[in-house]
Amino acid sequence: MQKLEVFGANKLKGEINISGSKNASLPILAATLLTNKKVYLNNLPKVKDIETMISLLRSLGSKTKFNKKNLIVDNSKQNKNFASYNLVKTMRAGILVLGPLLAKFGRAKVSLPGGCAIGTRPVDLHLKALSKLGVKYKIIQGYIHATAPKGLIGTKITFSKISVGATENLIIAATLAKGTTILKNCAIEPEIKDLTNFLIKLGCNLKWLSNRTIRIKGVKNIHEIKYSVMFDRIEAGTYLVAAAATEGNLRIKKVIPEIIKTEINILKRIGAKIILKKNQIHIYGNKTIRNTNIKTAPYPGFPTDLQAQIMVLLCKANRKSLIKEDIFENRFMHVSELNRMGAKILIKGNKALIEGNIKFTAAELMATDLRASVSLILAALTTRGKSIINRIYHLDRGYENIEKKLKRVGAKIRRIN
Ligand code: UD1
After folding, report:
1. First and final C-alpha spacing in the chain
2. What percent of the chain has pLDDT over 70?
3. Catalytic machinery residues
4. Ligand 1, from 163, 230, 370: best to mutate by most atoms within 8 Å of Cβ?
5. Which residue has the least CA distance to atom 13 on ligand 1?
Protein backbone atom coordinates (compact mmCIF):
# COMPACT_ATOMS: atom_id res chain seq x y z
CA MET A 1 0.00 0.00 0.00
CA GLN A 2 1.32 3.43 -0.88
CA LYS A 3 2.38 5.96 1.75
CA LEU A 4 3.48 9.55 1.75
CA GLU A 5 6.68 10.71 3.35
CA VAL A 6 6.67 14.37 4.35
CA PHE A 7 9.63 16.33 5.67
CA GLY A 8 8.74 19.77 7.12
CA ALA A 9 9.20 22.66 7.77
CA ASN A 10 9.70 24.58 4.54
CA LYS A 11 7.84 27.78 3.82
CA LEU A 12 5.80 27.09 0.68
CA LYS A 13 6.50 29.61 -2.05
CA GLY A 14 5.41 29.87 -5.68
CA GLU A 15 2.36 29.24 -7.82
CA ILE A 16 -0.29 26.54 -7.78
CA ASN A 17 -2.81 26.00 -10.55
CA ILE A 18 -6.12 24.79 -9.18
CA SER A 19 -7.73 21.83 -10.95
CA GLY A 20 -11.34 21.37 -11.99
CA SER A 21 -13.83 20.69 -9.23
CA LYS A 22 -14.46 17.05 -8.31
CA ASN A 23 -17.79 17.87 -6.70
CA ALA A 24 -18.99 19.81 -9.75
CA SER A 25 -17.75 17.18 -12.22
CA LEU A 26 -19.57 14.29 -10.53
CA PRO A 27 -23.17 15.56 -10.90
CA ILE A 28 -22.38 16.94 -14.38
CA LEU A 29 -21.13 13.50 -15.46
CA ALA A 30 -24.31 11.93 -14.03
CA ALA A 31 -26.42 14.52 -15.86
CA THR A 32 -24.89 13.56 -19.23
CA LEU A 33 -27.18 10.50 -18.98
CA LEU A 34 -30.09 12.79 -19.84
CA THR A 35 -28.96 13.28 -23.42
CA ASN A 36 -28.45 11.02 -26.44
CA LYS A 37 -26.15 13.65 -27.94
CA LYS A 38 -22.41 13.96 -27.36
CA VAL A 39 -21.12 16.03 -24.45
CA TYR A 40 -17.55 17.38 -24.38
CA LEU A 41 -16.33 18.06 -20.86
CA ASN A 42 -13.25 20.07 -20.14
CA ASN A 43 -11.30 20.65 -16.91
CA LEU A 44 -12.32 17.39 -15.20
CA PRO A 45 -9.78 16.69 -12.44
CA LYS A 46 -7.67 13.55 -12.75
CA VAL A 47 -8.75 11.93 -9.52
CA LYS A 48 -10.08 8.53 -8.54
CA ASP A 49 -13.70 9.60 -7.91
CA ILE A 50 -13.96 10.87 -11.48
CA GLU A 51 -12.56 7.57 -12.79
CA THR A 52 -15.17 5.75 -10.69
CA MET A 53 -18.01 7.90 -12.07
CA ILE A 54 -16.77 7.29 -15.62
CA SER A 55 -16.67 3.52 -14.89
CA LEU A 56 -20.22 3.78 -13.55
CA LEU A 57 -21.36 5.54 -16.75
CA ARG A 58 -19.64 2.89 -18.86
CA SER A 59 -21.33 0.14 -16.86
CA LEU A 60 -24.61 1.84 -17.80
CA GLY A 61 -23.73 1.70 -21.50
CA SER A 62 -22.15 5.15 -22.04
CA LYS A 63 -19.21 5.41 -24.40
CA THR A 64 -16.48 7.69 -23.13
CA LYS A 65 -13.11 8.71 -24.49
CA PHE A 66 -10.51 11.34 -23.74
CA ASN A 67 -9.54 13.61 -26.62
CA LYS A 68 -6.77 16.03 -25.63
CA LYS A 69 -8.22 17.79 -22.59
CA ASN A 70 -11.85 16.83 -23.22
CA LEU A 71 -13.78 13.84 -22.07
CA ILE A 72 -16.31 12.96 -24.76
CA VAL A 73 -19.38 11.22 -23.38
CA ASP A 74 -21.54 9.58 -26.02
CA ASN A 75 -24.82 8.29 -24.66
CA SER A 76 -26.48 7.56 -28.01
CA LYS A 77 -26.54 3.85 -27.19
CA GLN A 78 -26.77 4.14 -23.40
CA ASN A 79 -29.44 1.62 -22.44
CA LYS A 80 -28.86 0.17 -18.95
CA ASN A 81 -30.45 1.34 -15.73
CA PHE A 82 -28.63 -0.77 -13.14
CA ALA A 83 -25.93 0.81 -10.93
CA SER A 84 -24.05 -1.91 -9.06
CA TYR A 85 -22.96 -1.96 -5.44
CA ASN A 86 -19.33 -2.43 -6.51
CA LEU A 87 -19.20 1.02 -8.04
CA VAL A 88 -21.62 2.95 -5.80
CA LYS A 89 -20.09 1.68 -2.54
CA THR A 90 -16.73 3.32 -3.26
CA MET A 91 -18.24 6.70 -4.00
CA ARG A 92 -21.41 8.06 -2.54
CA ALA A 93 -22.02 10.35 -5.50
CA GLY A 94 -22.95 7.20 -7.44
CA ILE A 95 -26.48 7.82 -6.13
CA LEU A 96 -26.62 10.80 -8.53
CA VAL A 97 -27.36 8.48 -11.46
CA LEU A 98 -30.74 7.64 -9.92
CA GLY A 99 -32.42 10.91 -10.97
CA PRO A 100 -31.30 10.89 -14.62
CA LEU A 101 -31.98 7.16 -15.08
CA LEU A 102 -35.53 7.60 -13.78
CA ALA A 103 -36.01 10.67 -15.96
CA LYS A 104 -34.83 8.78 -19.02
CA PHE A 105 -36.16 5.23 -18.56
CA GLY A 106 -38.87 5.56 -15.91
CA ARG A 107 -37.15 2.84 -13.92
CA ALA A 108 -33.78 2.21 -12.27
CA LYS A 109 -32.06 -0.14 -9.86
CA VAL A 110 -29.32 1.65 -7.97
CA SER A 111 -27.30 0.38 -5.01
CA LEU A 112 -27.67 2.24 -1.73
CA PRO A 113 -24.35 3.95 -1.05
CA GLY A 114 -24.29 2.98 2.61
CA GLY A 115 -22.53 4.84 5.39
CA CYS A 116 -18.99 6.12 5.28
CA ALA A 117 -16.30 7.23 7.64
CA ILE A 118 -17.77 10.70 8.21
CA GLY A 119 -21.26 9.61 9.20
CA THR A 120 -24.30 7.52 8.35
CA ARG A 121 -25.11 9.66 5.28
CA PRO A 122 -28.62 8.47 4.40
CA VAL A 123 -30.37 9.17 1.07
CA ASP A 124 -33.87 9.62 2.50
CA LEU A 125 -34.10 13.23 1.24
CA HIS A 126 -33.35 12.09 -2.33
CA LEU A 127 -35.99 9.34 -2.16
CA LYS A 128 -38.68 11.42 -0.46
CA ALA A 129 -38.35 14.16 -3.05
CA LEU A 130 -38.29 11.72 -5.99
CA SER A 131 -41.52 10.14 -4.62
CA LYS A 132 -43.16 13.55 -4.96
CA LEU A 133 -42.27 13.49 -8.67
CA GLY A 134 -44.22 10.22 -8.95
CA VAL A 135 -41.49 7.67 -8.21
CA LYS A 136 -42.39 4.45 -6.38
CA TYR A 137 -39.53 2.58 -4.77
CA LYS A 138 -38.66 -0.40 -2.63
CA ILE A 139 -35.37 -1.20 -0.96
CA ILE A 140 -34.50 -4.84 -1.62
CA GLN A 141 -31.18 -6.35 -0.55
CA GLY A 142 -29.37 -3.04 -0.48
CA TYR A 143 -30.73 -1.81 -3.80
CA ILE A 144 -33.23 0.93 -4.54
CA HIS A 145 -35.73 -0.49 -7.05
CA ALA A 146 -37.47 2.59 -8.40
CA THR A 147 -40.12 3.08 -11.06
CA ALA A 148 -42.13 6.02 -12.31
CA PRO A 149 -45.27 4.29 -13.63
CA LYS A 150 -46.68 7.49 -15.18
CA GLY A 151 -43.31 9.12 -15.85
CA LEU A 152 -41.90 11.92 -13.70
CA ILE A 153 -44.46 14.65 -13.10
CA GLY A 154 -43.41 18.13 -12.01
CA THR A 155 -44.61 19.46 -8.66
CA LYS A 156 -43.60 21.73 -5.74
CA ILE A 157 -41.07 20.23 -3.33
CA THR A 158 -39.59 21.81 -0.23
CA PHE A 159 -36.54 20.00 1.13
CA SER A 160 -36.82 19.55 4.91
CA LYS A 161 -33.03 19.92 5.19
CA ILE A 162 -30.45 21.42 2.87
CA SER A 163 -28.67 18.64 0.97
CA VAL A 164 -26.21 19.07 -1.87
CA GLY A 165 -26.74 15.59 -3.33
CA ALA A 166 -30.55 15.60 -3.03
CA THR A 167 -30.76 19.03 -4.68
CA GLU A 168 -28.57 17.80 -7.56
CA ASN A 169 -30.46 14.52 -8.03
CA LEU A 170 -33.81 16.32 -8.11
CA ILE A 171 -32.71 19.12 -10.43
CA ILE A 172 -31.37 16.55 -12.89
CA ALA A 173 -34.47 14.34 -12.65
CA ALA A 174 -36.91 17.23 -13.07
CA THR A 175 -35.33 18.49 -16.31
CA LEU A 176 -37.15 15.79 -18.31
CA ALA A 177 -40.28 15.61 -16.12
CA LYS A 178 -43.71 16.55 -17.45
CA GLY A 179 -44.68 20.09 -16.46
CA THR A 180 -43.06 22.40 -13.96
CA THR A 181 -41.12 21.52 -10.81
CA ILE A 182 -40.37 24.05 -8.11
CA LEU A 183 -37.66 23.04 -5.63
CA LYS A 184 -37.43 25.05 -2.40
CA ASN A 185 -34.78 25.11 0.31
CA CYS A 186 -32.17 23.93 -2.19
CA ALA A 187 -28.47 23.73 -1.50
CA ILE A 188 -26.76 26.55 -3.43
CA GLU A 189 -23.16 25.38 -3.40
CA PRO A 190 -21.21 26.80 -6.38
CA GLU A 191 -21.02 23.24 -7.74
CA ILE A 192 -24.83 23.24 -7.97
CA LYS A 193 -24.76 26.51 -9.88
CA ASP A 194 -22.18 24.88 -12.18
CA LEU A 195 -24.57 21.95 -12.70
CA THR A 196 -27.48 24.28 -13.50
CA ASN A 197 -25.29 26.30 -15.90
CA PHE A 198 -24.36 23.03 -17.61
CA LEU A 199 -28.03 21.97 -17.84
CA ILE A 200 -29.11 25.35 -19.20
CA LYS A 201 -26.42 25.08 -21.90
CA LEU A 202 -27.74 21.60 -22.67
CA GLY A 203 -31.11 23.16 -23.42
CA CYS A 204 -32.91 22.49 -20.15
CA ASN A 205 -35.37 25.09 -18.90
CA LEU A 206 -34.13 26.11 -15.45
CA LYS A 207 -34.45 29.36 -13.56
CA TRP A 208 -33.32 30.30 -10.05
CA LEU A 209 -36.36 32.22 -8.75
CA SER A 210 -34.79 33.28 -5.47
CA ASN A 211 -31.87 32.37 -3.27
CA ARG A 212 -32.82 28.74 -2.56
CA THR A 213 -35.69 28.20 -5.01
CA ILE A 214 -35.38 26.90 -8.54
CA ARG A 215 -38.01 26.39 -11.23
CA ILE A 216 -37.52 23.60 -13.74
CA LYS A 217 -39.77 23.17 -16.78
CA GLY A 218 -39.50 19.76 -18.37
CA VAL A 219 -38.03 19.67 -21.88
CA LYS A 220 -37.84 16.98 -24.57
CA ASN A 221 -34.84 17.92 -26.69
CA ILE A 222 -31.33 18.37 -25.48
CA HIS A 223 -28.32 19.64 -27.46
CA GLU A 224 -24.77 18.50 -28.04
CA ILE A 225 -22.49 20.78 -26.00
CA LYS A 226 -19.02 21.59 -24.76
CA TYR A 227 -18.66 22.59 -21.14
CA SER A 228 -15.74 23.49 -18.91
CA VAL A 229 -16.14 22.57 -15.25
CA MET A 230 -15.49 25.18 -12.53
CA PHE A 231 -12.38 25.23 -10.31
CA ASP A 232 -12.13 23.13 -7.16
CA ARG A 233 -12.80 25.56 -4.33
CA ILE A 234 -11.83 23.01 -1.66
CA GLU A 235 -8.48 22.36 -3.32
CA ALA A 236 -7.96 26.14 -3.48
CA GLY A 237 -8.87 26.49 0.21
CA THR A 238 -6.50 23.67 1.12
CA TYR A 239 -3.50 25.38 -0.51
CA LEU A 240 -4.45 28.74 1.01
CA VAL A 241 -4.33 27.07 4.43
CA ALA A 242 -1.01 25.42 3.49
CA ALA A 243 0.49 28.85 2.80
CA ALA A 244 -0.88 30.30 6.04
CA ALA A 245 0.29 27.33 8.13
CA THR A 246 3.86 27.34 6.76
CA GLU A 247 4.26 31.14 6.77
CA GLY A 248 4.54 30.74 3.03
CA ASN A 249 3.69 32.91 0.09
CA LEU A 250 1.57 31.35 -2.66
CA ARG A 251 -0.19 32.50 -5.79
CA ILE A 252 -3.29 30.34 -6.14
CA LYS A 253 -4.26 30.48 -9.82
CA LYS A 254 -7.25 29.59 -12.01
CA VAL A 255 -9.81 30.48 -9.33
CA ILE A 256 -12.69 32.92 -8.90
CA PRO A 257 -11.96 34.58 -5.53
CA GLU A 258 -15.57 35.81 -5.16
CA ILE A 259 -16.75 32.19 -4.81
CA ILE A 260 -14.59 31.55 -1.75
CA LYS A 261 -14.93 34.87 0.05
CA THR A 262 -16.07 33.25 3.32
CA GLU A 263 -12.81 31.27 3.49
CA ILE A 264 -10.74 34.29 2.41
CA ASN A 265 -12.32 36.48 5.11
CA ILE A 266 -11.57 33.88 7.77
CA LEU A 267 -7.95 33.59 6.66
CA LYS A 268 -7.65 37.39 6.80
CA ARG A 269 -9.18 37.38 10.28
CA ILE A 270 -6.59 34.82 11.36
CA GLY A 271 -3.84 37.15 10.17
CA ALA A 272 -2.91 36.10 6.62
CA LYS A 273 -2.31 38.87 4.12
CA ILE A 274 -4.35 38.29 0.98
CA ILE A 275 -4.32 40.11 -2.35
CA LEU A 276 -7.10 39.31 -4.81
CA LYS A 277 -6.70 39.46 -8.57
CA LYS A 278 -9.22 38.49 -11.25
CA ASN A 279 -8.42 34.77 -11.37
CA GLN A 280 -5.88 34.43 -8.63
CA ILE A 281 -5.29 34.86 -4.94
CA HIS A 282 -1.94 35.83 -3.49
CA ILE A 283 -1.53 34.83 0.14
CA TYR A 284 1.26 35.62 2.60
CA GLY A 285 1.18 33.61 5.82
CA ASN A 286 1.81 35.56 9.00
CA LYS A 287 4.04 34.44 11.88
CA THR A 288 1.28 35.18 14.37
CA ILE A 289 -1.93 33.33 13.73
CA ARG A 290 -4.93 34.77 15.55
CA ASN A 291 -7.47 32.42 17.14
CA THR A 292 -11.06 32.34 15.96
CA ASN A 293 -14.29 30.36 16.18
CA ILE A 294 -15.74 28.69 13.10
CA LYS A 295 -18.85 26.71 12.40
CA THR A 296 -19.42 24.73 9.25
CA ALA A 297 -22.61 25.44 7.32
CA PRO A 298 -24.14 25.02 3.87
CA TYR A 299 -22.83 27.51 1.28
CA PRO A 300 -22.24 30.44 1.63
CA GLY A 301 -21.15 29.30 5.11
CA PHE A 302 -17.78 27.77 5.90
CA PRO A 303 -17.44 24.39 4.10
CA THR A 304 -17.28 21.19 6.11
CA ASP A 305 -14.82 19.95 3.47
CA LEU A 306 -12.29 22.51 4.73
CA GLN A 307 -12.86 21.94 8.44
CA ALA A 308 -9.98 19.49 9.00
CA GLN A 309 -7.51 21.73 7.16
CA ILE A 310 -8.40 24.94 9.05
CA MET A 311 -8.16 23.02 12.33
CA VAL A 312 -4.44 22.45 11.67
CA LEU A 313 -4.01 26.20 11.29
CA LEU A 314 -5.94 26.94 14.48
CA CYS A 315 -3.66 24.60 16.45
CA LYS A 316 -0.95 27.19 15.72
CA ALA A 317 -3.07 30.19 16.76
CA ASN A 318 -2.09 32.43 19.67
CA ARG A 319 -5.08 31.32 21.79
CA LYS A 320 -7.83 28.71 22.03
CA SER A 321 -10.25 28.32 19.13
CA LEU A 322 -13.46 26.43 18.63
CA ILE A 323 -14.87 24.62 15.59
CA LYS A 324 -18.49 23.52 15.47
CA GLU A 325 -19.23 20.87 12.83
CA ASP A 326 -22.85 21.35 11.83
CA ILE A 327 -23.02 19.21 8.67
CA PHE A 328 -21.71 15.72 9.47
CA GLU A 329 -21.96 13.99 12.84
CA ASN A 330 -18.63 12.19 12.75
CA ARG A 331 -16.19 14.41 11.00
CA PHE A 332 -13.44 14.68 13.59
CA MET A 333 -11.44 11.54 12.80
CA HIS A 334 -8.36 13.61 12.01
CA VAL A 335 -8.35 14.85 15.63
CA SER A 336 -6.83 11.74 17.20
CA GLU A 337 -4.05 11.74 14.60
CA LEU A 338 -3.40 15.49 15.07
CA ASN A 339 -3.29 14.89 18.84
CA ARG A 340 -0.66 12.17 18.25
CA MET A 341 1.38 14.92 16.57
CA GLY A 342 1.15 17.03 19.71
CA ALA A 343 -2.10 18.93 19.15
CA LYS A 344 -4.43 19.47 22.10
CA ILE A 345 -7.91 19.16 20.70
CA LEU A 346 -10.84 18.13 22.82
CA ILE A 347 -14.05 16.89 21.21
CA LYS A 348 -17.38 17.61 22.90
CA GLY A 349 -20.25 16.41 20.74
CA ASN A 350 -20.02 18.35 17.50
CA LYS A 351 -17.54 20.87 18.90
CA ALA A 352 -13.76 20.76 18.84
CA LEU A 353 -11.93 22.89 21.42
CA ILE A 354 -8.52 23.63 20.01
CA GLU A 355 -5.61 24.65 22.20
CA GLY A 356 -3.32 27.17 20.46
CA ASN A 357 0.49 27.59 20.27
CA ILE A 358 1.05 23.98 19.21
CA LYS A 359 4.29 22.90 17.61
CA PHE A 360 3.47 19.66 15.83
CA THR A 361 5.92 16.78 16.03
CA ALA A 362 6.53 14.44 13.10
CA ALA A 363 4.89 11.01 13.37
CA GLU A 364 3.62 7.99 11.48
CA LEU A 365 -0.06 8.60 10.75
CA MET A 366 -3.18 7.00 9.34
CA ALA A 367 -5.43 8.82 6.86
CA THR A 368 -9.13 8.16 7.45
CA ASP A 369 -10.98 10.11 4.77
CA LEU A 370 -10.25 12.52 1.95
CA ARG A 371 -10.09 15.81 3.86
CA ALA A 372 -8.68 14.24 7.02
CA SER A 373 -5.77 12.92 4.93
CA VAL A 374 -4.87 16.32 3.60
CA SER A 375 -5.01 17.86 7.07
CA LEU A 376 -2.30 15.41 8.17
CA ILE A 377 -0.10 16.50 5.26
CA LEU A 378 -0.61 20.14 6.27
CA ALA A 379 0.37 19.42 9.88
CA ALA A 380 3.41 17.43 8.70
CA LEU A 381 4.47 20.31 6.43
CA THR A 382 4.72 22.64 9.42
CA THR A 383 7.09 20.51 11.47
CA ARG A 384 10.71 19.37 11.18
CA GLY A 385 11.38 15.67 10.79
CA LYS A 386 9.83 12.86 8.82
CA SER A 387 6.13 12.08 8.95
CA ILE A 388 4.68 9.06 7.19
CA ILE A 389 1.05 9.06 6.15
CA ASN A 390 -0.58 5.68 5.51
CA ARG A 391 -3.73 4.83 3.55
CA ILE A 392 -3.35 7.68 1.12
CA TYR A 393 -5.79 6.15 -1.37
CA HIS A 394 -8.31 8.49 0.29
CA LEU A 395 -6.27 11.47 -0.97
CA ASP A 396 -6.21 10.18 -4.52
CA ARG A 397 -10.01 10.25 -4.56
CA GLY A 398 -10.01 14.03 -4.62
CA TYR A 399 -6.65 15.82 -4.98
CA GLU A 400 -5.05 15.93 -8.43
CA ASN A 401 -1.24 15.64 -8.38
CA ILE A 402 -0.98 16.77 -4.80
CA GLU A 403 2.67 15.78 -4.31
CA LYS A 404 3.72 17.39 -7.60
CA LYS A 405 1.88 20.61 -6.80
CA LEU A 406 3.36 20.77 -3.29
CA LYS A 407 6.88 19.85 -4.45
CA ARG A 408 6.84 22.67 -7.00
CA VAL A 409 6.32 25.17 -4.18
CA GLY A 410 9.08 23.78 -2.01
CA ALA A 411 7.55 20.96 0.03
CA LYS A 412 9.61 17.84 0.64
CA ILE A 413 7.10 15.11 -0.01
CA ARG A 414 7.28 11.79 -1.81
CA ARG A 415 5.17 8.72 -2.40
CA ILE A 416 6.60 5.38 -1.38
CA ASN A 417 5.31 1.87 -1.91
C1 UD1 B 1 -21.71 16.81 -0.74
C2 UD1 B 1 -20.25 16.78 -1.12
C3 UD1 B 1 -19.37 16.62 0.12
C4 UD1 B 1 -19.72 17.71 1.14
C5 UD1 B 1 -21.21 17.74 1.41
C6 UD1 B 1 -21.61 18.91 2.32
C7 UD1 B 1 -20.20 15.84 -3.33
C8 UD1 B 1 -19.88 14.69 -4.21
N9 UD1 B 1 -20.02 15.68 -2.03
O10 UD1 B 1 -22.02 15.55 -0.14
O11 UD1 B 1 -18.01 16.72 -0.28
O12 UD1 B 1 -19.01 17.42 2.34
O13 UD1 B 1 -21.95 17.88 0.19
O14 UD1 B 1 -21.21 20.10 1.76
O15 UD1 B 1 -20.58 16.90 -3.80
N16 UD1 B 1 -28.52 14.00 4.56
C17 UD1 B 1 -29.63 13.32 5.00
N18 UD1 B 1 -30.40 12.67 4.08
C19 UD1 B 1 -30.11 12.69 2.74
C20 UD1 B 1 -29.01 13.41 2.30
C21 UD1 B 1 -28.20 14.06 3.22
O22 UD1 B 1 -29.90 13.28 6.19
O23 UD1 B 1 -30.86 12.09 1.96
C24 UD1 B 1 -27.66 14.70 5.55
C25 UD1 B 1 -26.20 14.18 5.53
O26 UD1 B 1 -26.05 13.04 6.32
C27 UD1 B 1 -25.46 15.38 6.06
C28 UD1 B 1 -26.25 16.57 5.49
O29 UD1 B 1 -27.54 16.05 5.15
O30 UD1 B 1 -25.53 15.43 7.46
C31 UD1 B 1 -25.64 17.19 4.26
O32 UD1 B 1 -25.36 16.20 3.31
P33 UD1 B 1 -25.36 16.50 1.74
O34 UD1 B 1 -25.38 17.97 1.54
O35 UD1 B 1 -26.41 15.68 1.09
O36 UD1 B 1 -23.93 15.93 1.33
P37 UD1 B 1 -23.53 15.10 0.05
O38 UD1 B 1 -24.33 15.55 -1.12
O39 UD1 B 1 -23.49 13.67 0.38
Report:
1. 6
2. 98
3. 116
4. 163
5. 164
**3-19+231-416 — its CATH code?**
3.65.10.10
**Domain-wise residue ranges, the chain:** 3-19+231-416, 22-228
Antiparallel, parallel or unpaired: β 280-284 and 249-253: antiparallel
The candidate with the shortest Cα–Cα distance to 318, out of 286, 287, 291, 351, is: 291
**Cut 0.90: pTM above it:** yes
Look at ligand 1, atom 37, and give the residue with the nearest C-alpha.
165
Cβ(132)–Cβ(157) below 8 Å: yes
The listed CATH number (3.40.47.10, 3.65.10.10, 3.90.580.10, 3.40.50.300) that belongs to domain 22-228: 3.65.10.10
Quote the CA–CA distance of 115 and 398 in Å, as a whole number: 18
Condensed to tens digits (0 to 9), the pLDDT of residues 304-332 reads 999 999 999 999 999 999 999 999 988 99
In this structure, the residues whose C-beta lies within 6 A of any atom of ligand 1 are: 23, 26, 92-93, 119, 121-126, 161, 163-166, 187, 191, 304-305, 327-328
What is the tens place of the pLDDT at every residue in 41-74? Answer: 999 999 999 999 999 999 999 999 999 889 999 9
CA separation for the pair 406, 374 (Å, rounded): 12
Please check whether the two domains, 3-19+231-416 and 22-228, share a CATH topology.
Answer: yes
